[in-house]
Design a protein that fits this description.
The chain has 156 residues and is of the alpha+beta class. It is 30% helix and 31% strand. The protein has one domain: 60s Ribosomal Protein L30, Chain: A (2-Layer Sandwich). It has 5 helices and 7 strands; from the N terminus they run E-E-E-E-H-H-H-E-H-E-H-E. It binds zinc ion.
């Protein structure tokens, strides 16, 4: 057995009038995230980590930002497509660890829902997620958006 590791990083700005989708769930009380899709920065970072570990390129190559097919799409569908491809290639998704950097929302309050939602696609016992505060520093500290980091470990 060998293991493959991948990292994914994504950032999206807040956009008023859009629903906030983070880690596959809708969270009320905050602006949504700008983007061609639903703007789910957490799922996008997971996709890039998985694609990196499997050496399959990146999310932009898979799901073109100008392609009308992906406009406002539920990013979970994109994740499902990537997971199916990775599993079909013979990889086992061993673990995905996610760190989210933002002032709001507090990820810890939604951790259980996010983990349950993502694990339905990626596999039971594969996901951990944590939030971290930017402590008022920079654009994230000014509450202008959300950044997400993910690391994925595959076995083959
Ligand atoms: Zn994104």
């Amino acid at each position: 057995m060998s293991v493959k590791i991948g990292i994914g990083i994504d950032v999206h700005a807040f956009e008023a009038g859009k629903v906030l989708v983070l880690g596959g769930i809708e969270i009320n009380g905050y602006p949504g995230l700008k983007g061609h899709s639903d703007g789910d920065v957490v799922v996008h970072s997971i996709i890039d980590a998985l694609l990196g570990a499997a050496n399959l390129g990146d999310i932009g190559e898979w799901f073109g930002e100008k392609d009308p097919k992906y406009e406002s799409i539920d990013s979970k569908e994109l994740l499902r497509e990537v997971v199916n491809k990775i599993v079909a290639l013979g990889f086992k998704i061993s673990q995905v660890d996610v760190a989210v950097l933002c002032e709001v929302p507090k990820v810890s309050e939604h951790r259980t829902d996010i983990v349950r939602t993502i694990e339905e696609i990626v596999g039971a016992g594969t996901i951990s997620i944590k939030g971290s505060s930017p402590e008022g520093l920079g654009s994230l500290g000014r509450n202008e958006g959300v950044m997400s980091y993910a690391v994925a470990l595959l076995e083959v």
